[in-house]
Structures are given as structure tokens and as C-alpha cells.
Amino acid sequence: MPARRSSRPAIPVGIVFSQTGPYAMMGREMLCGAMLAIEEIAQDPAFDFGFVPVVRDPGGRVSAYHDACDALIRHEGVDHVIGCYTSASRKEVLPLFERTERLLWHPARYEGFECSDQIIYVGASPNHNVVPLARYMIESLADEVFCVGSNYVWTWETNRVMREIVGAAGGRILAERLLDLGGTGVAHMVDEIMARRPPVVFNTLVGESSYRFVQALHAALARAGAAIPMLSCSLCEPELRRIGPEASVGCITSSAYFESLDRPENHAFVARWKARFGAESSPSVDGQATYVAAMLLARAVRRAGTTEAAAVRQAAAGHVFEAPQGPVWIDPSNNHCFATPRLARSMPGNSFEIFWEAPAPMAPDPYLSALNLAGLAGRRHPREEMIMPRPRHLRVVK
User: Fold this and answer.
1) Does position 381 have pLDDT exceeding 90, yes or no?
2) Helix axes of 264-277 and 24-43: crossing angle, nearest 10 degrees
3) Packing angle, helices 87-100 and 153-168, rounded to 10
4) Given this model, what pLDDT does residue 379 score?
5) What predicted TM-score, i.e. pTM, was given to this entire model?
6) Residue 80, CA distances (Å) to 11, 39, 52, 259, 301 in order
7) Could you report the per-residue pLDDT of 189-204, keeping only the tens digit for each?
8) Which of 7, 164, 203, 391 makes a 20 to 30 Å CA pair with 311?
């Protein structure tokens, strides 16, 4: 996927996504987002420079992310890397970026509870994804939930937040079942869910693990003539197509971006995406966020007049970019982005129907230190079993 040539000064930028391995489809989506932005920057006269993408594929192996980023910094002279889909890969390279004082632009939504001077967190924070999803579940579906997920920090922390919120409402986590990252042996999870029939399933499985699970659970429910709502903070349009036309319908997803978002900037973005990558392609939340990350980086370099990390970080803070997902800007107090939370339901045709969104972009709250769950217990979904009340505030900041 070569970038188009430009006669302007060229700045090398590392692009590190796994285009092979257990979550290869999402890595390729994010690579597309980066390349589209880099090509548009090259054609935009507002920039007197261009980015030269130096692409690396760690193949989904966590240790390979460190090797790829280290080589980019040592041998390719990059000051900035756009990359990492999983939180395991981001945490693997975090010490490298802090030691070398380069910047990692991390596009993926994540679980929070991290704040590094050397990372710009472009994706949604936990108050943008799991918190609105948990509130919706408690108020509209149930306050008991069966959790399945990939065994790494994304699931651990996201389930911890879910547990605290559900507990504050007087509900409970019925079970937490984990699978190795990339594992596809989901039969035991499906069997237990069919035996226990929980009112809701919360899915934080990643890549092929998630696709196999959704397909297997849908088949089991269809055989039994039953239905159980499924919640997710990561399911996106390309994954719906991968899962299949029947099993992918009806999942409730929390995200800052959906392809169906009705705003002029998004209509234009989707048109450019399809023109570049094919009419059957669909930008995902992570592909869009990677596009936003490259655009934020380009604007910060232009304002700073240098690629030096500290100057770029300072120049990036607080400047609004009208992204496809809506206005986005970086909070200088924590290097995370303002974003607009949304909830949607997957529909036939590999699309989402948005049924709720926040009235304005929300400040990032990576440690959920501003979260107040007072009153949630009174809004819980009714159920027969009485459970002892639980504390109303998260205990996440000591």
C-alpha cells in the first residue's frame, strides 16, 4: 500500500499494526486509515511537508511490537509512531517510548487507567465506552451479566469497571470466562451460557475469538429458540461482515464512531474511504480513529514547526479537529481525547443503527475519577432477587 509521491519535505512516521495474526483484519483497517490520511495530507496545500509511512507488521505477537518500534526509532529516524491495536501491545512498547522520548499515537479505544507523557490516546476512554454501555444495560435490560473476554488487560480492566457499576446498582456479574488471545475454542463458554441462560452477555473477546464465539452462540440460541442480548465495546462494521449476515444482527455496541453517523464530515469521509479501498469496504471505528490520529499529528507538527516530541505534544493540545466522528481535541492534562459516546444496534446489511448519543463531546476520564454512580441503584432494571446494596462510587483512585 505505497503512499503517493510528494515533492515536499518528507517526515518519516512509523505505522505499526498487525496485518497478520489473530486480529489481522483490524490491523489492516487501521493501516487503511493511516494511509488515507497520509495521502490526503500529501495533497493538502495547507501542509508544507508530507509524511512517509514506514510500515511494520508485528503479526499479533506482543514482543514483536517492541522490536518493530525500537527498529523504527533506532534505524529509521522516526519521532512518531501511529500504532498498536491491543492494550497488551501498547503496554509492551510504553517503556520504550518513555525512555527514548518519542510519541506513540494510539488510535484504539481502550480500558483506561494509564496516562503517559509519551502516548497520545486518540481512542475512546472508559467513560466514553464501557460506562454508557453499563448504564444502558442496567436501566434497560438487566443488572446481571455473563462476561466473556480475551485474557489480557483490556478484558480485565473493562470487566472491573463493569463489576463496579453493576455492583453499585445492586446487580452482579454472573460469571467471567476468559480465552487466550487468539484462541478459538469457545464451546465451553457457549455451553455454560446455554445452561445458565443469563439475561445479558458482555463480550470483550478480540478478533477471531469474538467472531467464533458470536457465531457459535447464535447457532446454539437458534437451535434452542432462545435469545440473549449481547453487548460489546469493540464490534464494528467490517467485523459484522466477517461474522455473517444472521449471527451479526442485534448486538448492542458502544463506540465513538459508526459508519452510519449522519454528519457531513462523515458522509464525505465514507465516500473517500470507499473510493480508495473499494465500494464494499466500510470504515471501522479503529480505522477512522487512525485517520484522526494522523490528522492530529500533522496539524501538531505544522503548529510546532518541528517533529520534536515535546513540542508536538504541546502544539497538539486543545486544538479542535472536525473529524468524521465529530469534534475531537486532546486534553493537555492527560493526553486523551474528547469524544462523543454513542450506542447502536447492529442491523442487517453489516451496519449499525445509532439509538443514543451524548449531546456533546465528553472530556476523557481515563481513571474514572469524576464518575458518580449515585442514583443508579434506583434506576436498575427490575428483577425478583434482592441483593445487598453496594457502594455507589468507584474505588479506582487511591
Assistant:
1) no
2) 110
3) 110
4) 60
5) 0.92
6) 10, 17, 11, 28, 10
7) 999 999 999 999 999 9
8) 7
